[in-house]
Amino acid sequence: MGASKTEHFTDKQNEIASLVKALAHPARIAIMEYLLKVDTCICGDIVNELPLAQPTVSQHLKELKTAGIIKGTIEGNAICYCLDEKVLAKLQTYFGNITSKLEKRKNNCC
Amino acid sequence: MGASKTEHFTDKQNEIASLVKALAHPARIAIMEYLLKVDTCICGDIVNELPLAQPTVSQHLKELKTAGIIKGTIEGNAICYCLDEKVLAKLQTYFGNITSKLEKRKNNCC
DNA sequence: TTTTAATATTGCAATATTACGATAAACAAA
DNA sequence: TTTGTTTATCGTAATATTGCAATATTAAAA
């Protein structure tokens, strides 16, 4: 086994799980935070920012890109990366709905 | 390898990554949504709600519990599960900060 | 053209995850 | 006590993830 049984869940559940999975590693959280910090697209120095070898960083970037969290456009012989606002807004909305539903209910039985 | 190099990242980055990782599977998203839907602690029928075998569900519940997303209290010979509002609020705040920072910057160069 | 710099891909080893049958443990009910 | 119900754990197979050295690719610069 080892493969998730995605076919049994709703599209929305699979979508959220896949977005969240793309961020389920400290290196990818760090990449997102770095792209946020520099406050612009960054062309180049992502590898130098992380305590990981270049192929490893490249792999993490690929996962973020595949999930849609970041976008990368070729800029000369470097690549310009930035965050996709829409996709991150999706996550914010999702967790916002969850906590607002939880706040409304005040029967905290546990 | 296969093991994440968590020691190279900040505590906060590791914490968020670990929370997010606990939700990085459609079954665990489904469990969270079910606990939200029933609008109370639920004692029992989580296994019946999911298209997975009982040991598999038990394992997913354990991961959610270890990460702190859910709490489980023994209730007779059943177990009463519910969401931990505080932990989910942490995620909401995190993604809220990210999107609000992204919205402020209007230099969308990509 | 040759060199240099930036990024991607390949291949592989170590480890983690997912899933479930079998079984155990805990406890209520008969 | 025996039985049934609920949940956890063990063991194991299949698959995925993580990390990096080696190498390839791409394009600017010399």
Could you characterize what this model shows?
With 110 residues, chain A is of the alpha+beta class. Chain A has one domain: Winged helix-like DNA-binding domain superfamily/Winged helix DNA-binding domain (Arc Repressor Mutant, subunit A), CATH 1.10.10.10. In chain A, 56% of the residues lie in helices and 13% in strands. Chain A has five helices and three strands. Chain A has a three-stranded antiparallel beta sheet. In chain A, a hairpin with a 2-residue loop joins strand 2 and strand 3. The longest helix of chain A is centred in the C-terminal third of the chain and has 20 residues. The radius of gyration of chain A is 17 Å and the shape is globular. The termini of chain A are far apart. At the A-B interface, helix 1, helix 2, strand 2, strand 3 and helix 5 of A face helix 1, helix 2, strand 2, strand 3 and helix 5 of B. The first copy, chain A, binds a DNA duplex (30 and 30 nucleotides) through helix 4.
Keywords:
homodimer; DNA-binding; Arc Repressor Mutant, subunit A
Look up the CATH topology of chain A. Answer: Arc Repressor Mutant, subunit A
Q: Give the CATH architecture of chain A.
A: Orthogonal Bundle
Q: What value does the average pLDDT of chain A take?
A: 89
Strand content of chain A: 5-15%
